[in-house]
């Protein structure tokens, strides 16, 4: 499993005018091809009278699912340049639709490639890029006498205290980056003189 990856924070929308043509960009985070297709269809219905609704999406840990659609523009001048922007920025799980209202001035192949590339970049800026890092939820089971010291040390560290459960013993839950799991366990063991029972509960991605 990947330790980190970049994607968009969520929905984004932007618009640019190039040689009197309107390029309206819509961006969204998706996790499945079905979600991407539904998003594209929604934008197509919203702009049913547009000259073109070009689209692309990139999904999966290893970009297993990737599609580009020129929607009537000359082959390779819209969907592929849009997809290349996603690849160059290292984005995953992202769908983009660029709606074009023709302004009467032809842009030529190179002009279209630049226009759709620029429109996609603007849309990504509007959607905001985030990095998602793999963390483990680590549970520390410890006697209550250690609670004050341990809680204070964790809150003043780079680790994130998620929750504390008060049972027969106290259970502290902490978000820990995958790559520093061993370091974290050694640190807790040292702080508690080996009195803590540390277990890995689950993994999850946290956004930055």
Overall description:
This protein is α+β, with helices and mostly antiparallel strands and 208 residues long. Strand 4 and strand 5 (65-69) form a beta hairpin. The chain has helices spanning 33-46, 79-88, 108-127, 147-155, 181-191; strands at residues 4-8, 12-18, 21-29, 52-59, 65-69, 94-101, 129-142, 160-166, 170-177, 197-207. The longest helix is centred in the middle third of the chain and has 20 residues, at 108-127.
| SS-derived structural category | alpha+beta
Low-confidence stretches: none
Shape: rod-shaped
Strand segment count: 10
Distance between the termini: 18 Å
Mean model confidence by pLDDT: 96
**Helix content, binned percent:** 25-40%
* Count of runs of 4 or more consecutive helical residues: 5
- Oligomeric nature of the chains: single chain
Strand proportion, as a percent range, falls in 35-45%
Major pleated sheet: 5 strands, antiparallel
What can be said about this structure in brief?
This protein is an alpha+beta fold and 208 residues long. It has 5 helices and 10 strands, in the order βββαββαβαβαββαβ.
């Amino acid at each position: 499993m990947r330790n980190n990856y970049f994607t968009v924070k969520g929905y984004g929308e932007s618009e640019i005018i190039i040689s009197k043509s309107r390029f309206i960009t819509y961006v969204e985070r998706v996790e499945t091809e079905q979600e991407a297709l539904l998003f594209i269809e929604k934008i197509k219905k919203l702009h049913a009278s547009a000259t073109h609704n070009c689209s692309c999406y990139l999904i999966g840990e290893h970009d297993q699912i990737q599609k580009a659609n020129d929607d009537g523009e000359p082959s390779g001048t819209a969907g592929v340049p849009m997809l290349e922007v996603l690849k160059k920025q290292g984005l995953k799980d992202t769908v983009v639709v660029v709606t074009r209202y023709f302004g009467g001035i032809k842009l030529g192949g190179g002009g279209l490639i630049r226009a759709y590339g620029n429109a996609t970049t603007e849309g990504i800026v509007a959607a905001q890029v985030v990095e998602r890092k793999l963390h483990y939820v680590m549970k520390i089971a410890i006697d209550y006498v250690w609670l004050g010291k341990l809680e204070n040390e964790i809150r003043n560290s780079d680790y994130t205290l998620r929750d504390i459960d008060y049972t027969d013993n106290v259970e502290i839950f902490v978000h820990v980056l995958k790559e520093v799991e061993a370091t974290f366990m050694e640190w807790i063991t040292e702080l508690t003189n080996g009195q803590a029972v540390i277990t890995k509960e689950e993994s999850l991605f946290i956004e930055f």
